[in-house]
């Protein structure tokens, strides 16, 4: 691998009781793998009594994550539980209140609001957009320099995902960088390279909320349309949605539509660089895109975890999880669990059952935008397969986000050889 982390970050050598997997520095340096391997082997249901985010349980094996993620009655997604950082959206201000979106709700409210969003992400709606996505992808790839270094993140991953997100929201494509900026603010925290301070983030979130509420009123005044904001303005399930819930859902859609696909596009290029035999395999047989896409999503795991709160005392794998305890499902660990996935440390583009990964979650909270992500990735690699590129060489280690909620790649310098 190009990015070996740093010598002073060695969680594999710590006493088990001292392991702290939520430290954002571990993700910045890609230094979390040994830590999760130890937890899977030695204590897969592990309690952390003291962390920067308070006490919580780490769930690190594939099967255990599926069981908890599928059991919303015992493990709730109530506000403040979805992220280790309960101030995921608001920041630590005196007037902060829990903000709910569909990923931080339980039925029946979850089901009602999900119905307002899902039609805009349906296969029929995406089929209508496929031609546009392919045209844009070709334009972006055709404009790339050959034999010259450039940043894959800014020139390819961000461009394609932001154009798609703007289209889904009915947002002006020429103003797409504003959505990217807000996404970085929503998912960020001070020190991550985007957020200067909590006050900075709070100011930008106020602008975000005011702007999106104004756009909703404009859509309400117009005729119904098939973009997501119009659906949230007109559909019966969303007409009564208050301003706080609406803003929270928009934040979820923007982060989900930007960070996840963008980072998987970049992560796949890095994975191919580190596994050149897989690149040769793909160039020889482009039909492998059908398994390449889910394998890239598994290998990158752009959202490392989600968390829940126990609704009651639960006996789980010999441990007692108390009512109110926070339970963190480490998708990034489950996706490397060799009990469920053979040879999980390798990037294998023709992997059998490649779609059976954890990156989209399980149960009622399975990512509603999974088809959007898969479509964009599928088209990107289909169009790359048509090129006479012999290699996408990563020239310097990636710059990774100092964050644990999104496994972000901020910069990836590459040279295309053809």
Account of the protein in words:
This protein has about 425 residues and is an alpha+beta fold. It has one domain: Orthogonal Bundle (Cytochrome p450), CATH 1.10.630.10. Helices cover about 45% and strands about 10% of the residues. It has helices at about 25-30, 35-40, 60-70, 110-115, 125-140, 150-170, 175-185, 200-220, 230-235, 235-240, 245-275, 275-285, 290-300, 330-335, 370-385; strands at about 45-50, 55-60, 75, 150, 305-310, 315, 320, 325-330, 390-395, 400, 410, 415. It has a five-stranded mixed β-sheet. A three-stranded antiparallel β-sheet has the order 4-12-9. Strand 1 and strand 2 (about 55-60) form a beta hairpin. Helix 6 (about 150-170) crosses helix 7, helix 8 (about 200-220) packs across helix 9 (about 230-235) and helix 8 (about 200-220) packs across helix 11 (about 245-275). The two termini are about 25 Å apart.
Largest sheet: 5 strands, mixed
Measured by DSSP, the beta-strand proportion falls in 5-15%
H/E element string?
HHEEHEHHEHHHHHHHHEEEEHHEEEE
Query: Strand pairing plus helix content: what structural class?
Result: alpha+beta
- Percent helix, as a range, is 40-55%
Overall average pLDDT:
87
Give the strand line-up of the largest sheet.
1-2-8-5-3
Q: How is the CATH topology named?
A: Cytochrome p450
Which of globular, elongated, flat, extended, rod-shaped describes the shape? globular
Number of domain units: 1
CATH class: Mainly Alpha
The CATH homologous superfamily corresponds to Cytochrome P450
**Which regions are unreliable across 5 or more consecutive residues at pLDDT < 50?**
1-8, 86-98
With helices defined by DSSP (H or I, 4 residues minimum), what is the helix count?
Answer: 15
- Total strands: the figure is 12
N-C termini distance = 23 Å
Q: What value does the Rg take, in angstroms?
A: 21 Å
CATH architecture assignment: Orthogonal Bundle
């Amino acid at each position: 691998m190009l990015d070996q982390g740093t010598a002073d970050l060695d969680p594999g050598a710590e006493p088990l009781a001292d392991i702290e997997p939520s430290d954002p520095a571990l993700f910045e340096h890609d230094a979390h793998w040994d830590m999760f391997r130890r937890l899977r082997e030695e204590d897969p249901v592990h309690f952390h009594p003291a962390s920067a985010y308070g006490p919580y349980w780490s769930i690190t094996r594939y099967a255990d994550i599926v069981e908890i993620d599928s059991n919303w009655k015992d493990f709730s997604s109530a506000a403040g539980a979805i992220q280790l950082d309960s101030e995921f959206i608001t920041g630590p201000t005196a007037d902060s209140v829990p903000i709910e979106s569909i990923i931080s709700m339980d039925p029946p409210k979850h089901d009602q609001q999900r119905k307002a969003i899902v039609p805009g992400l349906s296969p029929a709606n995406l089929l209508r957009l496929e031609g546009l996505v392919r045209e844009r992808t070709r334009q972006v790839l055709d404009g790339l320099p050959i034999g010259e270094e450039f940043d894959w993140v800014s020139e390819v991953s961000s461009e394609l995902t932001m154009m798609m997100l703007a289209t889904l929201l009915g947002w002006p494509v020429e103003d797409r960088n504003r959505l990217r900026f807000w996404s970085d603010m929503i998912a960020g925290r001070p020190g991550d390279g985007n957020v200067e301070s909590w006050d900075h983030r709070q100011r930008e979130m106020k602008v975000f909320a005011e702007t999106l509420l104004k756009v909703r009123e404009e859509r309400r005044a117009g005729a119904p349309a098939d973009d997501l904001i119009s659906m949230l303005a007109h559909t019966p399930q969303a007409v009564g949605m208050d301003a706080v819930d609406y803003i929270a859902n928009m934040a979820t859609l923007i982060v989900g539509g930007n960070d996840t696909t963008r980072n998987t596009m970049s992560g796949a290029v890095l994975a191919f660089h580190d596994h050149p035999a897989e690149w040769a395999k793909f160039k020889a047989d482009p039909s492998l895109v059908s398994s390449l896409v889910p394998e890239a999503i598994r290998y990158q795991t752009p959202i490392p975890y989600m968390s829940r709160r126990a609704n009651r005392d639960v006996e789980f794998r010999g441990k007692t999880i108390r009512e109110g305890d926070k339970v963190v499902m480490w998708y990034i660990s489950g996706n490397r669990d060799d009990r469920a996935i053979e040879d999980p440390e390798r990037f294998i583009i023709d992997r059998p059952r490649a779609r059976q990964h954890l990156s989209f979650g399980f149960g009622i909270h399975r990512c509603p935008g999974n088809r959007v992500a898969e479509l964009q990735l599928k088209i990107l690699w289909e169009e790359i397969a048509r090129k006479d590129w012999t290699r996408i060489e990563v020239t310097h280690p990636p710059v990774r986000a100092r964050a644990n909620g999104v496994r972000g790649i901020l910069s990836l310098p590459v040279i295309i050889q053809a």
